[in-house]
Amino acid sequence: xxxxPPSHPVAIIxxxxxxxxxxxxxxxxxxxxxxxxADINPAGALTAASLPLPSxxxxxxxxxxxxxxxxxAQLALFQRAYAHNGSIDVFAANAGxxxxxxxxxxxxxxAPPLPRDGTEPDGHPAQHPTVHAPDLAxxxxxxxxxxxxxxxxxxxxxxxxxxxxxxxRARRTRRMVITASMVGMYPFETNPLYCAAKxxxxxxxxxxxxxxxxxxxAVNALLPAFVPTGLAPPGxxxxxxxxxxxxxMGTVLxxxxxxxxxxxxxxxxxxxxxxLYWRRPVEYPNESQRWLxxxxxxxxxxxxxxxxxxxxxxxxG
Length: 317
Known about the structure:
317 residues, alpha/beta, 14% strand, single chain, eight-stranded mixed beta sheet, globular
């Protein structure tokens, strides 16, 4: 005899206290989800408490202060959500920050002159710039944290799938939606670190999506254009809106609807103004490039599988 699935599907949403994350929280609450809202801003607790419930039977959202750049913090988030009813049905990896460092900033500081070795022009004592390690917080939050979240989501989804099978429940798809960005497809001079991270998310989604789909795990990504979020500095939203280039939140939510209800996997959907554009990878320039990417899985897998197995034995020893 099969056991019925839980009444409230469970969703984890990071960056849930504002912008896209908050809009998605409200949207999924109306659809009967139990939401675990995660955000580094502790004021998100007040936001969660103030959200109106769509019906008396609706499950109120739970706010969990979370720094997604900390893997232990994300693990605690997933454990808390899983404990609700033994399943995490949706994971919206939405938290993000803009550039933590201006890579174009001039470094004008110098260290004391180095000893002369006879190679410097006369009258010009040797000096060198003082260079500090780059601030990689943007990559930590916007890329590395998503990789950590993916690992957690897959682990919990597999565990839930085994429990479903053990209790005679039908297999169901569990879905991860990554908030990338339109700049994951284009250059973006103002925030190149953010741009690099979002390019990475596009590549990650396209690379893992088809493989995980075989297990009933759908991984897709949103590529929103400019929508009103907390990332924008003062005045930017008004300026973009005045020029007619602000994408309404409803367009992003439409993309979520398609990703949470359809059979897509490894897809990237660009959300611009009122339209959705399902973006494909660039065309191959020749047959060799196509073969390396599409037909050589056995070659790549065999070589890397052997190398990783040997590396694992080395660590174990």
